[in-house]
Design goal:
Number of strands: 0
Distance between the termini: 15 Å
Order of helices and strands: HHHHHHHHHHHHHHHH
Oligomer: single chain
Shape: globular
Radius of gyration: 21 Å
Structural class: mainly alpha
Helix content: over 70%
Number of domains: 1
Length: 452
């Protein structure tokens, strides 16, 4: 366990963010490596995997229900120096992860094809997306256990074991991707099925490695089978914090699904360009996301220890660091957007669409950094409903105008990117205001530090 209620806030942010960013970068290589080799299979394969990858928002949403609730409650317990409660919430999160994995497998195999059929541009894209998901769903299901363990560690201020496990498993995925997708060394190319299988095997490796860490090395929280009997009171507390965050990702799933539907009339090349551009954008967001992820447990421990000024300082320092990162990334995008996408496709039309998407949307990077930071602070405070309200406002201001525009004769793909730019800026303003309201309500100036 690492005590985040003492010492410089900036040092804690950097110390946690660096391993988180490193691990997230390697984690994202799952998708970029798959995308690189899948791109060799044609536009339909790219579009199919991109559309299928949108279901990841549902799975991520469910994992965030579990992960955010676990991080917040364990960090609060650590701030209060209550090890018994931290262990209780960790073991209950393990039970919840098994239940969520089962739901993911059943729901995923039942709903995959209907969803892909709705958003895909043609039958070839439907086939590619469905095949990819069928092989990747077991990996998605195993992510719940991985999130439960990594979230428990993050709540106690420990992030390096998760990073190491991610790096090792990404290396495994990089090795498996060309073997399974294009048949290197085997002569049996599996295509998009191989992409899904490679990621599934790699995630299984991460779960095994983190489990071994908890069995052999972790001392503050650990597996305690006697605490695996479902505790409804603990589940309610985890879900009360986690469900709004899960709702955020479900709204993002709707947001992405609407984009794929709106541009479907432009063909597979348009969907492939958006798929590549959005994946690249998600990848370059990782440094700012890592900083925001670090802020959550720092704010959580200090909130649990009743140190309101350190909570406010965490927000201020995180915003400054995140803004500097996002400005740098915006400059990078405008310097050469085509350079960031050219390695994924040889199709000039797909490249143009992806580069245009990145150029326009890069203007909201700083605003997106504010949203990331505010969401993490809401988690640290233990009330994630304002973050859901903020995301809901963006979906409302984007979805209805996007659907209307897509039915107009003058509609172009670029109109969606400009609409997205406007709505992200509005969301960042709303997130900032809602967080200031939370600070006034939950961080009274007269609060005193909790005695150990």
């Amino acid at each position: 366990m690492k005590d985040l209620t003492q010492g410089p806030i900036s040092r804690h942010i950097v110390a946690m963010a660096l391993p988180i960013a490193f691990g997230m970068i390697f984690q994202t290589l799952y998708y970029l490596v798959d995308l690189y080799f899948v791109a060799r299979l044609g536009d339909a394969a790219i579009a199919g995997v991109g559309a299928a990858g949108n279901i990841m928002f549902i799975v991520i949403g469910l994992t965030q229900v579990l992960g955010v609730g676990t991080v917040t409650l364990i960090s609060h317990a650590v701030g209060r120096k209550d090890q018994a409660e931290a262990n209780l919430f960790f073991n209950q999160s393990i039970v919840l992860s098994a239940l969520c994995a089962l739901i993911t497998l059943i729901g995923g195999y039942a709903l995959t094809r209907p969803y892909i059929t709705t958003v895909a541009a043609d039958e070839a894209t439907v086939a590619a997306g469905t095949t990819y998901l069928y092989w990747f769903l077991p990996g998605m299901a195993m992510q719940f256990a991985m999130v439960a363990m990594s979230s428990a560690l993050r709540g106690t201020g420990i992030v390096k074991p998760t990073m190491i496990a991610q790096v090792i498993t990404v290396v495994l995925n990089i090795i498996l991707a060309p073997i399974l997708i294009v048949g290197w060394g085997t002569g049996y190319p599996m295509g998009v099925a191989g992409a899904g299988l490679a990621s599934t095997i790699a995630i299984f490796g991460a779960v095994v490695l983190l489990s071994l860490y908890f069995v052999r090395l972790e001392k503050y929280v650990g597996f305690q089978p006697e605490q695996w009997r479902p505790r409804m009171d603990a589940w309610k507390r985890v879900l009360a914090i986690g469900l709004p965050t899960g709702g955020e990702f479900l709204l993002l799933f709707l947001f992405m699904g609407v984009i794929y539907w709106c541009i479907s009339d432009f063909g597979a090349a348009a969907q492939a360009g958006f798929g590549i551009g959005s994946r690249v954008m998600q990848s370059i967001f990782l440094p700012a996301m890592a900083v925001a992820f670090a802020a959550g447990p720092i704010a959580g421990q200090n909130f649990g220890a009743r140190r309101p000024e350190r909570v406010r300082e965490t927000f201020r320092k995180t915003i400054l660091i995140s803004t500097a990162i996002m400005i740098t990334l915006t400059v990078l995008i405008h310097w050469s957007p085509a350079l960031l996408v050219q390695g994924f496709t040889e199709d000039p039309e797909v490249r143009t669409i992806a580069a245009t998407f990145l150029t326009i949307t890069s203007w909201y990077f700083v605003s997106q950094g504010v949203i990331f930071t505010c969401s993490s602070m809401f988690q640290g405070l233990g009330d994630t409903r304002p973050a859901l309200l903020s995301t809901g406002s963006r979906v409302l201001t984007f979805v209805l105008p996007a659907i209307w525009m897509s039915r107009q004769p003058w509609f172009r793909i670029e109109h969606l990117w400009y609409l997205s730019l406007t709505t992200v800026i509005l969301q960042s303003v709303m997130s900032w205001i809602l967080l200031q309201i939370q600070f006034r309500r939950r961080l009274p100036p007269q609060a005193e530090p909790l005695a150990a």
